[in-house]
Amino acid sequence: MRSFFQAVFLAITLVGVFVVQGNAERWCPFGGVEALYTYIAEGNMTCSLAVSNFYILAAVLAITLLLRRAFCGYMCPIGTISDWLGRGAAAVGLKPRTVRPGLDKWLGLLKYAVLFVVLFLTYRASELIFRGFDPCYALISRHGEDITKWAYVIAGAIVVGSLVVTMPFCRWLCPLAAVLSPFSRFGLVRVRRDAEACVDCGKCSAACPMGIPVDSVKEVTQARCMSCLDCVDVCPRRDEGAVTWGPPKRWGKPWSKAALAAILVVCTTVAVVASYAFPLPSFIKTRGTEPADTAVVMLNVEGVTCRGSSNLLVYYLERDDVFALVGYLKVEAWPGPGYAPVHVTFDPSRCDEDMIRQAVTEPYYDALADVWRPSPFVIAGYDALGLDDDGS
């Protein structure tokens, strides 16, 4: 079942990127982590990201609280490729090396250092600093010019490493794994070993891709568990209940793989549907104190494609020439290609909708530079000159 889910999610990613030409970054859960601080502090998101990142991050956190780090084992494209490489190597006789528990523990701390560096540089620069080095971005970005050679070097190292050690990036270096691990530690499900039914063959520990000593614990509560269920599958006495998987015993009987599949599908589907049903703005900027009475004009504006162009739109709305707007303003935008939705909340006692449309579209005189700056924005259905379609 895990191979099926891995193949499905990898196929969805590749088709979305290379066939549909979609922006897969908007569905990356780590993008939600990178964008969270800036969105809370400033009300906007780094270019290429959207509030859909928050929805999918919430879904992955919900999956983690229920199934531990199942996202890593079933949905992540890097996890899938690394896992398949390891299995392929084993199939041709390249047995993966065993890492000593003490060394494995220390190496596992590296992912927290990677997370700290990535978030520190991202928040400091207000840009996705990590993307140029991200092996996953190299896969989902159609190999754009913003990818450095280091992304391919890192990807190559993961490929080679995966042939020698099972899923090394996922175990020791992935910054998203560092985010999920504290939640995974409190995950509902766990692998349970019945000491009376167990024959101490050690097959469960040997099968674990995360190097967890399943044969020496009563319950697997380690944060790095992916609920892959390889340990259950290889147990020669699983029918007798030697190794089972599910919630704590007091919650009832062990779960089947169908429960795992249902949780993955439901959480992912809810996140996708919610992102379209409740499309929160990815850019918010406010000027002044909100009055008792406000009005909102809803515009579709061409040229609002990212945070930079959204800030430029605010620049035109806050102009200081003859088209200057007075009073409270709140701009909410959903940047993207084509005509992007823009909602402007204003004080109707101090300006009106036509004044806002003029501020957006009229040329702006920059007195400091002594130049006229034509507006790069077009509002759907609005003609500042009031001309008919034939220009008359």
Give a structural overview.
The chain has 392 residues and is an alpha+beta fold. The chain is 46% helix and 11% strand. The strands form three sheets. It has a five-stranded antiparallel beta sheet, with helices on one face. A two-stranded antiparallel sheet has the order 1-2. The protein has a two-stranded antiparallel sheet with strand order 7-8. Helix 2 crosses helix 7 (110-125) and helix 5 crosses helix 9. It starts with a helix and ends in a 13-residue tail after the last strand.
Q: Which features does this protein show?
A:
single chain; 392 residues; alpha+beta; 5-stranded antiparallel β-sheet; 9 strands; elongated
Quick structural gist:
With 392 residues, the chain is α+β, with helices and mostly antiparallel strands. 46% of the residues lie in helices and 11% in strands.
